[in-house]
């Protein structure tokens, strides 16, 4: 199969990827150019950020987040990478993830901030979940990741946080929320969550790019990334919804993209109207971060963790 762009220009370069939903075959050069243009288009359409702003890019060491960081650098945006070391020792997971992020930053001349839960809070994410007597490590992890992203953004004076969520993630989340009729989540699901009540803006520049596209971008750019998932990750419901959508996509290419785009255009505004008024936020008495309670969830968990650890040691 020949690259469409090359073919239109009278050249016969072979394609390295075929995007069925776009009916587009591209060589390496033109795929990378096309991918970056698509991301730039999303950034501008949703007014995510400008080249005058610094974007805090959350990087786990996976293909999506590192590809996002690479794209933003290539497009000339000012970035600061943030890697959260969770202290997971199994498979050398956290150590390897941090090494990969540091390697990427050095190779691309970018700045990286590493936030270690163990160093900052005294416990790894697994220890926090165990001492807090939480069976679901993933939910605790999500709470702490969001907290740390907001905290680092605040400390650095940054107003925009970018994550590598792709179209597959967004479509699966949308299907999950629709199956449960989660009005609140449906009303808030968007490539952009505006800055409000002390929280920085959250953006997803890859919201319209498939996982196939992001991993292809990483591979073609020679980006080293974690190929194994977190050892604490279990078979989540999101994987079930992703498989269901993948089967439909195979029969009807473009389904995921249409599903998500049409939701944003036609359905989200309706759900947004149904949202209840925002709860009044206050400052956490322990850390000063925005919260609906006197003490935020992270400080509450850490308080319990320290009490349980102290009680056990005694």
From TrEMBL:
Protein name: TIGR00269 family protein
Highest taxon above the source species: Bacteria
Keywords: Transferase
Protein's UniProt keywords contain Transferase: yes
2-thiouridine synthetase TtuA-like N-terminal LIM domain ranges (all copies): 3-32
Residue span, tRNA(Ile)-lysidine/2-thiocytidine synthase N-terminal domain: 55-225
One Pfam entry name: ATP_bind_3
Organism name: Desulfurobacterium pacificum
């Amino acid at each position: 199969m020949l690259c469409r762009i090359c073919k239109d220009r009278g050249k016969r370069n072979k394609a390295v990827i075929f995007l069925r939903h776009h009916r587009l075959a591209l060589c390496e050069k033109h795929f990378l150019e096309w991918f970056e243009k698509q991301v730039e288009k999303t950034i501008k359409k949703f007014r995510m950020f400008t080249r005058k702003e610094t974007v805090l890019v959350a990087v786990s060491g996976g293909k999506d987040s590192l590809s996002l960081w690479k794209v933003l650098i290539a497009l000339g945006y000012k970035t600061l990478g943030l890697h959260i070391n969770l202290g997971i020792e199994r498979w050398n997971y956290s150590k390897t993830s941090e090494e990969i992020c540091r390697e990427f930053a050095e190779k691309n001349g970018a700045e990286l901030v590493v936030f270690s839960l163990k160093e900052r809070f005294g416990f790894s994410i697994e220890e926090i979940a165990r001492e807090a007597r939480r069976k679901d490590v993933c939910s605790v992890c999500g709470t702490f990741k969001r907290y740390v992203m907001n905290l680092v953004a605040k400390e650095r004076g940054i107003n925009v946080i970018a994550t590598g969520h792709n179209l597959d993630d967004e479509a699966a989340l949308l299907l999950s929320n629709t199956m449960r009729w989660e009005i609140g989540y449906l009303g808030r699901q968007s490539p952009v969550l505006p800055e409000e009540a002390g929280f920085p803006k959250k953006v997803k520049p890859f919201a319209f790019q498939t996982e196939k596209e992001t991993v292809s971008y990483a591979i073609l750019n020679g980006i080293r990334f974690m190929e194994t998932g977190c050892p604490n990750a279990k078979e989540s419901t999101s994987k079930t919804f992703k498989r269901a959508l993948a089967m439909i996509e195979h029969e009807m290419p473009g389904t995921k993209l249409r599903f998500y785009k049409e939701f944003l255009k036609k359905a989200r505004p309706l759900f947004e109207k149904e949202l209840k008024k925002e709860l009044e936020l206050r400052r956490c008495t322990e850390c000063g971060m925005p919260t609906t309670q006197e003490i935020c969830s992270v400080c509450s968990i850490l308080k319990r963790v320290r009490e349980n650890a102290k009680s056990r040691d005694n």
